Amino acid sequence: MFLRRLTASLYRIHPFLFVIYFPIALLAANLGEVLPASVLRPLLVSVCFALIAWGFSWLLARNWDKAALMASAAVVLFFSYGHVYGIVKTWVIGDVLIGRHRLLTPLWGILWLAWCWWVIQARRNLDLLGKAFCVVALTLMFMPGFSISRYYLPELFQKHPEDASDHPAPQQNTAQTLPDVYYIILDAYGRSDVIKDLYDYDNSSFISYLKEKGFFVADESHSNYNQTVLSLPSSLNMDYINDLAVQMGAASTDRRPLLEKIADNQVSEIFKGLGYQFVTFDTGSLITQIKDSDIYLSPSYQNISQEQALLKGIYLDDFEGLFLKTTMARVWFDEFLARQNNVTNFAIEFPYIKHRVRILYIFDQLGEIPAWNGNYFVFAHIFSPHPPFVFGSQSEMIQHSQPISFQDTGCCSQEEYINGYHNQVIYITKRLQQTIDQILSRSAIPPIIIVQGDHGPGAYYDGISMDELKTYDRMSILNAYYFPKPTNLLYPSITPVNSFRVLFASQFNMDFPLLADMSYFSPGNRPYEFSEIPLEWLKK
Q1: Kind and range of the H or E element at 41?
Q2: For residue 494, how far is the Cα from the chain centroid?
Q3: CA 153: distance to chain centroid?
Q4: What is the 3-state secondary structure (H, E, C) of 234-267?
Q5: CB 223 within 8 A of CB 485
């Protein structure tokens, strides 16, 4: 009897099915970019929200079936709010801007109250409607659930390498016979003409500095792809990756083959064959978090104040912040927290501070590597001047009112992006110049250095479509080479796909013919849907 009653009541769980759908759908849309553990707290909070909504609805209706329907409506409205706001925030009807919290929030309340009134007043049996809600919720859950299962289940049966934090320290007893090689990626560092035209920053003095030091600056260079997860697999394997579109399908969102091409790349294998050790860093990005390199360097974060360190367990990570901004919590971030005079909410600020520490640590360590004995290929992906903006022009701290986001689109308004990028690129350029001075002055054998943007900035970039302005902004990059042996293989429009081809040919006498310099665009959520970019859009 009990089991029969339990089975007959199971259809009432649809509020919990709906509430589980929203965080797992967001995880499915970001597979390969966030850790699956990031979904746990959003799931827990979401389930608690559903419990509260169901309990409150029961107090209004005094009927569990009706309470479940009312709670499901509350869940759907609350957790869809940010998505809808993101769509309508630029809509204008007449002279009225529709996408405003002061209009959308009351509308959401009216919709929920109207639904509750209808449900409470309904005289007929609502069992069939409840069962329909269950079917809809289960169908919605199936799609992201299938994607997540297909993505992660094979990994459970794979043998994972030892934790990279246990990797040995640099060898101190090996004679250095070859130049150390530094591949420094400054994420979203644009070409000089772009950041002057669009971001009001003239870095001509830095370009002059590089040339005086002996760098070749490719002042007509552009990226081969518009996303980090595409650009780096191409440059580190010295080839285009368009064949993955055939292998994966243009509609695929599975980024695992791209991450594998970064972690197990051809360039590092060639250097290992020459006796080099592969050095990588904690970058804060799963894309370049290569923990199974020969030497993996990560800061301890001990220089973060004790007060902040005590609160580090409750901070919002990138996924959690993104999730909350897709819900009605966005109103709190936009309308209340942003107005506080002293924005010191550590749940928001801590990850920004951690990101800042990570960037400074990479710069510090780059200056120390020349003192190591041995031969090293150093891959340093510095997630700056790309958002999030954590440095003012004089390195000062930037306070924030929004959860941390590593995305170009949606991180801030275009005006905020331009201002934040302008200030951050000033500081990053100063720090890079200091680091280059340290590497050159401390190296017993003149090193090889490539300083490169993986793609350009993104104030005008929407991640969806391409036109001349968007691609000029997004694709034009800083690209500079310091080679001990002179070469005539470098040229102004060289792109990253040819960087190591020239390096191995000119510095190690290997046979790597050059490829045509092409550029491709793909939407952020469909990385394999490649469209060729007209090269005339990328010229100065």
Answers
A1: helix 40-61
A2: 26
A3: 23
A4: HHHHCCCCCHHHHHHCCCCCCCHHHHHHHHCCHH
A5: no
- Non-local (6+) Cβ contacts of 253 within 8 A are 29, 31, 147, 525, 526, 527
With a CB cutoff of 8 Å and minimum separation 6, the contacts of 533 are 466, 471, 475, 519, 520, 521
Average pLDDT of adjacent 10-residue blocks, the chain of 540 residues: 45 87 86 78 90 91 89 93 81 70 88 92 82 89 83 57 40 64 98 95 96 97 96 97 92 89 96 96 91 92 53 66 84 65 58 90 96 95 96 89 78 89 97 97 96 95 87 95 96 98 97 96 91 88
Overall residue count recorded for the chain in this entry = 540
Distance from C-alpha of 295 to C-alpha of 241, rounded to nearest angstrom: 27
pLDDT score of 339: 53
Q: What is the DSSP letter of 448?
A: E
| Cα angle for residues 395, 280, 504 (degrees, 5° grid) | 110
pLDDT at 9: 58
CA distance 361 to 317: 20
Q: How far apart are the first and last CA of the chain?
A: 78
Q: Residue 201 has which token pair?
A: 């920053």
Here the tokens at position 483 are 């080679």
User: Tens digit of pLDDT for each residue in 174-225?
Assistant: 445 799 999 999 999 999 999 999 999 999 999 999 999 999 999 999 999 9
Contact present, 454 and 230 (Cβ < 8 Å): no
Cβ neighbours of 256 (radius 10 Å):
14
CA atoms within 13 A on the CB side of 373: 5
Token representation of residue 326 = 């897709």
Instruction: Give the span between the Cα atoms of 448 and 439, in whole angstroms.
Output: 10
99: left (phi over 0), alpha (psi -120 to 50) or beta: beta
Give the angle subtended at the CA of 203 by the CAs of 197 and 208, to the nearest 5°. Answer: 130
Domains located in the chain, CATH noted: 2-156 (no CATH), 180-299+354-482+500-538 (3.40.720)
Do residues 384 and 186 touch, judged by C-beta distance below 8 A?
yes
- Whole-angstrom Cα Rg for the chain: 26
- 10 Å CB burial of residue 347 (0-12, 13-18, 19+) is middle
pLDDT one-digit tens code per residue, 416-445: 999 999 999 999 999 999 999 999 999 999
